[in-house]
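## retry 2 of 3
previous attempt timed out at serialization; input unchanged, resubmitting
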Amino acid sequence: MLSMIFNKSALWLGRVIVGVLLLTVVGLVVRFFYVAFSDPTIDAVHQRAKLEYLTTLPQISNNAPNIIVIFFDDLGWGDLSSYGNRLIETPEIDQVAQEGLLMTNFYSASPVCTPSRAALLTGRFPPRTRTDRHVYFPTDSTMGVLRKMLGWANALPKEEITIAEVMKHAGYRTGMIGKWHLGDHKGYLPNDFGFESFFGLHFSNDQYPLNLYRNKEVLIQDRREGGLFASERDQLHPLPGQGVDQRQLTKMYTQEAIKFVKSTAGNPFFLYLAHSFPHVPHYSSDEFANTSRGGTYGDVIEDLDRSTGELMRALDRLGLADNTIVLITSDNGADYNGSPGYLRGRKGQTLEGGQRVPMIVRWPGRVESGRVTDAMAMNIDIFPTLLQASGLTLPKDRVIDGRDLSGLLQGKSESPHAFLYYFPVIQTLPDAIRNGEFKLTENTGDFGRSRMHLSHLDGDTEAHDVENLFPEDAASLMQALQFKQDEITHNPRGWITPGAHRGDL
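## retry succeeded, writing output
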């Protein structure tokens, strides 16, 4: 009798377990398809605030400065000859530096590309723009679907405000050429964020599919076999006729940039030239192949240098050079092929080599030529600086983490930052802070224990912990880091309620 009851109970329990498992699987499948194919969530309140801000912007005058941002991909702090490289020759970029300002303590907001690109375009830290979870992937790729399943953003939120949107509404002609890497959803492409024209790739040159776009239309389609579960890393090298010939990318970007500048017909313009290189895999034009003392990587850099020179000479021919702001920088530090100079660390790390990058600014008549500064700045500063240069105000409904560098560029002041913050990959909160000569890093050691490391950046490579020599400086930096961590924890998107005091966030 007991055995019969036991068997019935076991059978009933087994059926319950199987039923629960089936419901779980069905639920996961439903969630998979819902998440994979649903549109990103829009913050309606701040989307309205964005539209109100853009539609009330004043129109700029015809003599407003033109703006060109040249953004390299994975260019290391030590990759240019103007920054000390003795193998790779970059005379064209060096000439721009001689005619402007070279910055030795300029940083990307992240050690990887998606959050850094969002920071440049919005003036905001990675968690503000929901780009704090590494990099975006094509929507129909394995990683793209996985990101959405995890609840991670895979496109720049619609309510974010980009430089291009501000410039377009103020009367600038706006164009983007090169690598976007901020989403491939309908409604989340470069043309949807203020760029009147776009020519380039949606993602990095090692992410499948590698389609080349003109605006929203495919210009060259990647015809390799792939799909949801295709390995992006297995799709790097298309055969002739299968897709983009990456050897021609830098040359095509350059030609398109010159064409855009010519097409503006004397109207002020904003050009965002986001090169695909020197990101891996490395390709250069045929005339640069096997010519550099820096090897294949050097070939790529010297091809990019030639590109920069051609664009600068086009500005000269068109009589636009004297009224054009040119900024040259990188999205993060060097990958394993590039050079961080004497700095410690590389791409993906919050060590100096992962986030300190070249920055050159040329603005004839406003920026003294041949000047070098060690003042701290970050690519979040580009947004407020360019708006100030164009006579435009910042939005009031959100924290703009960047600071106006006008005084610094003109030699009238030092860094506007009391502190700089370093945001690690796949983390919302900063794990390091710098105040000038000192940098404090909060490392998670064995068994989750937190360890502080104080570096003296004046001549050191972050190898030595000097907290015992400067305990007060360490304590002050730790307090400031914790304050910023708390602020972002409580308000990660950085929304400002009406009437609230912005403070020094």
